[in-house]
From TrEMBL, chains A, B, C, D, E:
<dbReference type="GO" id="GO:0015095">
    <property type="term" value="F:magnesium ion transmembrane transporter activity"/>
</dbReference>
<dbReference type="Pfam" id="PF01544">
    <property type="entry name" value="CorA"/>
</dbReference>
<keyword id="KW-0813">Transport</keyword>
<keyword id="KW-1133">Transmembrane helix</keyword>
<comment type="similarity">
    <text>Belongs to the CorA metal ion transporter (MIT) (TC 1.A.35) family.</text>
</comment>
<dbReference type="GO" id="GO:0005886">
    <property type="term" value="C:plasma membrane"/>
</dbReference>
<protein>
    <recommendedName>
        <fullName>Magnesium transport protein CorA</fullName>
    </recommendedName>
</protein>
<comment type="function">
    <text>Mediates influx of magnesium ions. Alternates between open and closed states. Activated by low cytoplasmic Mg(2+) levels. Inactive when cytoplasmic Mg(2+) levels are high.</text>
</comment>
<keyword id="KW-0472">Membrane</keyword>
<keyword id="KW-0460">Magnesium</keyword>
<dbReference type="GO" id="GO:0050897">
    <property type="term" value="F:cobalt ion binding"/>
</dbReference>
<dbReference type="InterPro" id="IPR002523">
    <property type="entry name" value="MgTranspt_CorA/ZnTranspt_ZntB"/>
</dbReference>
<keyword id="KW-0406">Ion transport</keyword>
<dbReference type="InterPro" id="IPR004488">
    <property type="entry name" value="Mg/Co-transport_prot_CorA"/>
</dbReference>
<feature type="transmembrane region" description="Helical">
    <location>
        <begin position="299"/>
        <end position="317"/>
    </location>
</feature>
<feature type="transmembrane region" description="Helical">
    <location>
        <begin position="337"/>
        <end position="359"/>
    </location>
</feature>
<dbReference type="InterPro" id="IPR045863">
    <property type="entry name" value="CorA_TM1_TM2"/>
</dbReference>
Length: 365, 365, 365, 365, 365
């Protein structure tokens, strides 16, 4: 995964926005033109038939019948009136609709009378610290989904509907399962790529390379915390779904939801393990820095300790005491072996110093 | 958010005060002239009517009737006798009144017979580590609120009452919800501004600038811990409210309370994530300091290691051994190429040293 | 709070003592002359009357009647026979009596038939890491308290009894509440003073002063852990009391106990927050040390890097190569501008070095 | 245990693979030729008889009768059609079969109608961070096991069946217990070897040797986290099994399952303790590095502090001030005891310096 | 407590052994000659009588009658056949017997029909990281205990039986309580001695002495983790015992078991607090190391900064520029006050440097 810093910075905070205005009346829907324009399409299947349709007018909104499943898929949340009209047509609770528009909900399951409201969060391909809110309504014979942006991970589900897979033989509850399952499955490659990144950094640190490991590890850890938070929310939400005693969800769909919950738990496992690895690697990288400072210090001390005494000796024999004033004044300067003596003294001292450090093990790194 | 240190220091401890006197009889109300003087006003609405009134005399205190909602809003807690009188008029429990005056209660919900007592904590605009206690009593047809200081985040609620919004069609329980919701909503911009601060610091640390990051991070972390504590309290209190089987709270108000609880949980999520970020950034800033020490050390060691041997050579050829006493005494001094030889020796040594450090990768930062 | 180290050291371990002899029969009471001698006094109140009495003889021990409350207050645990006699007179369980004497119990509530046994722990004024055990027995019409040492925080309760406050109109359960409440209230000033200490240290660290902060923080953290442990115990004990379905405790006393529990939870909140602050400050102080090492290193490196090359140049022109042996031998020494050239070389080098460090930002701290 | 880095790197991520294709229909079985080819064998025992058979054709698949236990053991998961056929023959649920093929399941217990599906994870001998999935189906009179690779820890179970041990007198539930028990038992030597490694490192750090301790500790900690995760999964799964009210599991088998659960808890205990040790050792190793830096610094400072003043003195008496120009110019150079005086000055200074450091305790390490 | 490293190293791992052979049939008892040889003795008391007997032959095994309590105490687990025979005589479950022999069980309580099986762990006097397993069987009128080694903390219980204490008037359940209580009581002095050690180290660190504190703290922390683990196990086990609705345990024994549970909780409290202290001290010791490095650095920088410029000046005036070649060449050398000027320059520079450091507060430690 290529974490481009500018995007990362620009989007880091996007996942947390205040409600329209603090203290506004709950259930107020406000159009926001910075969002994508709203488009609608439906897939109606069951009894062997399949109709796909793009909805242009609100009066085209389908009325679901028994024996068929209608999936109304709305993309883009810019036009509050349209969404409000949909809410009225299908009797969706105002608070739920408000949650649809305020796209920073946690993943959750709420029950409003005979409609089940599920919020799930879909990963973006290009924004590591952001997620798209998908709001699902499960009603009798009907599933309504709201997405923030065009592009989703549901194509494989649509394909399975078109090919008349098992999904066509079952009710809307199974469709909800299939959609959530598709969202969850998209977490796998993300975590896998982070894991690969961690392995690379591990190799780099062990090889004592890679000075920028620490800020990369910090970034990865932040993404892992972000993913873990999302996964916990989905875990909670799926737990509610699995335990739900609700006539909207057929008993044999529970097995599939439980399977999906298993996947989330498995992902959480991986995220936790990777976070542990990440922390461990950060500590290792820190220790590596400390160890290097130590090594550098040792070189410095070695050099200083070896050369300082030698420099002193050279300095002493560079003093200008007058040999004529006294026989005590630097007689070495006139010895026959004076110069060799001084050089030998230096060499011997250097060897002793090096031997001392050798004995203390400073050369065995 | 601009965290001015002096205010921060002055107020840091204000949120924690001892009860009037340790061991005093519970239920004793003591006037405290350091507090704001007590003022009262009411809003009476329902059945399409709205009366706003400033109460000057205790005998003006309203008697609520069926079909209307009376909101008695008391600001300033300086005059214990007035508050005691209000308590007697509306049969509020002495312990609850004591909690009203001792403004360091946790957010909580207590049930005293047919009156529900809620404590919520409102953020101050200018004091990051302090919060104002708002005490709410929910009785039949009536809501009583006590605030410490003038100025609150309830204006938007008052406006909605004046405009005859949905709030006017519902009972006092909905008013309590609306007030709590207004308090909670005010946490969003605070957390958002802290988050922006964290992002700035993140950018600074990554750019290796900003030496004072650590104490700023410490401050932000402290505020986050403070906010998290408040949010946990509200979460607990709202959980009690949502689960309350109480005739004072209509069943369909529960949906709204649950929505408010959702907001608190969402805020907690953000606070936790920001706290994790904060800790991560602190560690990164620390590592940055260690890394810099390392870099500085490397420069020092490099310089020392390169220059010490050269200085020694210069020192040696500065010795005054007498060439007349012996042909062994520093014959180099009289070589034809003596001086160039010495300079070349130095240059070669320097190049070897630098090559050694190059090989060890000290120049590739 | 003035934490005098010697006392702190001397008393640190006092709060943890082994039972009389490991494996001794439970219920064995052993006199311990190192403890305070045992004295007894009673307060008997109710029906508008109040009798205070000092008990000298065991046969003076009061027999409680209906309609009055007897508070038998025993101070000093040196005389096991007296305590055993009291136990027999009022049918206290041997294991509870053993707990009275082994003064290192946790705060707790035990039910022995129709007697309720409560252990609470009272703070000492002068020993930050020690607490005094107060054992309370609640029986019909009677409260018995055992304290380790003279001096307590109950005077305010006694005063309220003497002044015929609400306490006189209620049963012994309310007295037990009032005593526990007095003990808990004494925790407030202690935590407040620790909080003030923390604020001071915070200010010192931010001002980069105060080298002994770390050991003071360690001490404060230790005291906070100690207080938190005590508060948790009281929280557990009060939770048991509040939930107790026991005829000894009147239903309307529960409201007061719950209020007391609220105080404990509030104190725990403060202790937790302060502990977080303490840890944060420790980390900040550590980072400050690292930052200073960094600053010191920078000065060292700067000086070394600037002066080493200059010293080398001076050393080179101090070499004694013989100018007469060769025109190549140090011709600079006989240049007309030789000396100024050397000094200029040094100055230019120094300026280049300083410019290099300026560019790397070593002067912008 | 010999942790070969290349294998460790290569396999670190193998334990986490995405499902066949994100969003694929659940229950889809896809052949994967990178897996081991599928082989089957059966052991049929009970009523004193034992038949072992290698299954080559799907029509050889045994039909279990009352009074006997059939253990169908499938190794290698390459051939999806064969596995699908087995699933159809014995009515195994498609989701369970999918889990069999996607070999990255957590250890778990699922109930599908009258078949119990257990996933356990078997350690590899040569891959410290990988585990093999063993899927067990417990049906009436029958146990079916799927393994990823040839080679397992079940030989001892097979031997006990061949020798007609207690296992032959009991039902398939006991066989499931015996197999899980064999898997769990294989964790003991792994943890034991890690513990021994930790002890070795402890000894090395205490002896101030072993610079590579930190990366080894990081590796061990990672393996411990991996093992702990597996053990937690098995603990959860066994808890479900022990509490299962299922006619497939005889009541007296519960005692054995509880015993197996005890072993897992014991292993968890060891893993937790070892992880604590590991963290402690990492901190100790870090402190050791800091301590060494300290020691090296002290040597450096000592040498510098002793030699710098001496070098300065030598430098001073090496200055060339002209004695003929002024009697003030370096008269020492012509003193009778000039040279001895300079040497003595140096010696005295050195002794004073050393004494100063001695007094500050720099020699007492 | 004197923690002798060799013993500590040798025994560190002893507390964790694999079962006889991985995958062996459960309930297999294998003789292990490395264990102590098995000896047996009984105490039979009740109805005022007491018989103590050493059992040499298996047919001497006592048959308990109503109205008496038989305590069969087996020491040493080397002879599996004897233990198997005892198991058969008293109908002990094979899995329980297996647990008796595999002496690395957690403290626990298991119920096998009408026999209660309790595992407790007794501290060794001389092995800080090891504990001896004591297995207790409570049957009707009978208690059977198995110990690994001779020597235990039960002498005080035996003495109380001999002296006809309260223990003789009660059933075998009270004997089990007394034995567990004796085991738990022996934890008190161990924790007390560790606490004293911690206080000593605290004093040493505060006094900036004691370089080996860190490895000692690591050792103490490891022991505390070990003790805490044991205490948690006992807490769990005693919780089961206290809550057990079992006819083997008389209701009034529950009070005593609860008292014993209280002791364990108290010990856990101390262990937790000590562990917190230990971690705090480790951090303090680490900070102390960092602080010292800082101090050493400051001395080094001071010396270097003061002497380097002086050495440079001496070097400059030691240059050999020829005064005869140019009047610009080092005229200072022939000044009348040349030498005093140079010395004064040096002194002034030194004073300025020292003043600079004084101003930056480097002398105020």
């Amino acid at each position: 995964m290529n974490i481009t810093p500018p995007i990362y910075k620009r989007l880091a905070r996007k996942y947390f926005h205040r409600r329209t205005a603090p203290g506004a009346a709950p259930g107020t829907l406000v159009s926001d033109k910075s969002k994508h324009p709203t488009t609608m399409r439906t897939m109606t299947y069951g009894s062997g038939q399949l109709v796909e349709q793009k909805i242009e007018q609100l009066d085209q909104l389908p009325k679901p019948h028994d024996g068929q499943v209608v999936w109304l898929d709305i993309t883009g949340l810019a036009d509050a009136p349209i969404i409000e009209a949909i809410g009225k047509t299908y009797s969706l609770h105002p608070l739920a609709l408000e949650d649809v528009l305020h796209v920073h909900q946690r993943a959750k399951v709420d029950e409003y009378g005979n409609v089940l409201f599920v919020v799930a969060r879909m990963l973006y391909d290009d924004r590591p610290l952001d997620s798209e809110q998908v709001s699902l309504f499960l009603a009798k014979n009907m599933v309504i989904t709201f997405q923030e942006d065009p592009g989703d991970c549901f194509d494989i589900v649509r394909e399975r509907i078109r090919q008349g897979g098992r999904i066509c033989a079952r009710g809307p509850d199974y469709l909800v399962y299939a959609l959530i399952d598709a969202i969850i499955d998209a977490y796998f490659p993300r975590l896998e790529s982070l894991g690969t990144d961690l392995d690379d950094i591990d190799a780099q640190i062990t090889a004592s390379r890679g000075r920028h490991s620490l800020s990369r590890l910090h970034e990865i850890r932040r993404i892992l915390i972000f993913l873990r938070k999302l996964l916990w929310q989905h875990r909670d939400a799926l737990n509610v779904l699995v335990r739900q005693e609700n006539e909207l969800i057929a008993p044999d769909t529970h097995v599939y939801l439980r399977d999906c919950l298993d996947h989330v738990v498995q992902l959480l496992d991986v995220a936790e393990t990777d976070r542990d690895s990440c922390i461990g690697l950060q500590e290792l990288a820190l220790a590596e820095i400390g160890q290097r400072t130590n090594d550098v210090m040792r070189v410095l001390t070695l050099i200083t300790t070896v050369f300082m005494p030698l420099t002193l000796i050279a300095g002493i024999y560079g003093m200008n005491f007058d040999p004529n004033s006294s026989p005590l004044n630097m007689p070495e300067l006139r010895w026959f072996f004076g110069y060799p003596f001084a050089l030998s003294l230096m060499s011997i001292l250097a060897v002793i110093m090096l031997g001392f450090f050798w004995a203390r093990g400073w050369f065995h790194r």
